[in-house]
Amino acid sequence: MLEIRNFVAGYSQVAVLHEVSLTVEAGQFVSVVGPNGAGKSTLFKGISGTVAPMGGEIRFLGEDLLKVPPSRRAHLGIAHVPEGRQVFASLSVLENLEMGARTPEGRRTWSRNLEQIFAWLPVLAQRRDQPAGTLSGGEQQMVAIGRGLASAPKLLMLDEPSMGLAPAVADFVFDKLMEIRRDTGLTLLLVEQRVAEALQFADRGYVLETGRVVLEGPCERLRADDRVRQAYLGM
């Protein structure tokens, strides 16, 4: 579904990512883990088009994504749940979800999708008329996930969904993501600092350090790797 080959990207002509290659197959859950400053969020911004490429290629469903304007990439079926949630604070929960349903498929399936989002995340139904900025951090994260789902994506990219959340709330968010995946088979690409959870739930993982992929493979194998165990799992 998503193929990234030798991708180079950064800011002000300074490369942050150095020839990164990554593959996500349809229906897979893939995690990208690594320390702060490794380039994880830059990778997502490169896929979404908010960071200009310096080299390499990205293909989505066989299409050259780097030739697609950033404003059109969501219409291909890519939803990006950004770091820090970035909800529209003055808009209601329902209006935030409606903002996600701007793709052709999102508009066509809006009623059914909304019903399903409320079934997965019932707190959003309870708060549907409440300004999103008045919600707790965990509830805002659910709004951001719901907004991504409202576009009826083929690929849902989640950038640090546990950031700033209490451990119990972060666990709840991960549980909900797993429920959504079980129900839909949706393809997930996750960037996450909670390495244990990211590698526990995913099918395949990539370890990114200083802008380079240093390890990759099935998550079961990564969890058993001494380097991962010592550097990220505290073992």
Describe the structure.
The structure is a single chain. The model has no long low-confidence stretch (mean pLDDT 93). Helices cover 39% and strands 27% of the residues. It is built from eleven helices and ten strands. Helix 3 (93-100) runs parallel beside helix 7. It has a six-stranded mixed beta sheet, sandwiched between helices. Strands 2-1-4-5 form a four-stranded antiparallel beta sheet, covered by helices on one side. The chain is an alpha/beta fold. It folds into two domains: 1-76 and 155-160 and 187-235, Rossmann fold (3-Layer(aba) Sandwich), CATH 3.40.50.300; 78-153, no CATH class.
The Rg value, from CA coordinates, equals 17 Å
Chain-averaged pLDDT: 93
Enumerate the spans where pLDDT stays under 50 for 5 or more consecutive residues: none
- Strand-residue fraction? 25-35%
The number of strands is 10
In spatial order, strands of the major sheet run 6-7-8-3-9-10
Work out the helix count.
Answer: 11
According to CATH, what is the class of the largest domain?
Answer: Alpha Beta
Number of domains: 2
